[in-house]
Design goal:
Strand 1, helix 3 and strand 2 form a beta-alpha-beta unit. The chain is of the alpha+beta class and about 100 residues long. Helices cover about 40% and strands about 10% of the residues. It is globular, with a radius of gyration of 15 Å. The longest helix has 15 residues, at about 40-55.
C-alpha cells in the first residue's frame, strides 16, 4: 500500500474494512505482512526479504514457486519482479486481477 494512504478515507466500505482487517489483525492468525512503501521501493524490498528468509532446502527436488497478485497499475513492476525471481530458478505465476488468490 502507498505509505500515505488513509484507510479511513477509502470510499468503498467493504474495501475499507478489508484494509483495516489486514492492518489490525494479529499476524499470528495470518501468514502475510502488510507493506506500506513507495511503489519504486517495493521490488527491492521483496528481493531483500526473499533473500534474507531463504534457507538451504533439505530436498533439492523441491523448487521455489511464487504467486504474484497484482493490480493492473502494478503490472510493470510485477513483470520485473517475476523476471528477477525466474532468473534465480523460481517458478512464477500471476493471479489475474479478476481472480481470487485462493
Amino acid at each position: 500500500m502507498p505509505p500515505d494512504l488513509d484507510i479511513e478515507s477509502v470510499e468503498d466500505p467493504a474495501q475499507r474494512q478489508f484494509l483495516l482487517n489486514c492492518q489490525n489483525r494479529p499476524r499470528e492468525l495470518a501468514q502475510y505482512e502488510l507493506v506500506k512503501c513507495l511503489q519504486a521501493d517495493f521490488i527491492n524490498l521483496l528481493i531483500e526479504r526473499i533473500a534474507s528468509g531463504r534457507q538451504p532446502a533439505s530436498d533439492p527436488s523441491k523448487d521455489l514457486s511464487y504467486l504474484i497478485d497484482t493490480h493492473q497499475k502494478d503490472q510493470r513492476f510485477a513483470f520485473k519482479l517475476a523476471d528477477s525471481l525466474s532468473g534465480k530458478g523460481a517458478e512464477v505465476d500471476f493471479n489475474q486481477e479478476s481472480q481470487d488468490p485462493l
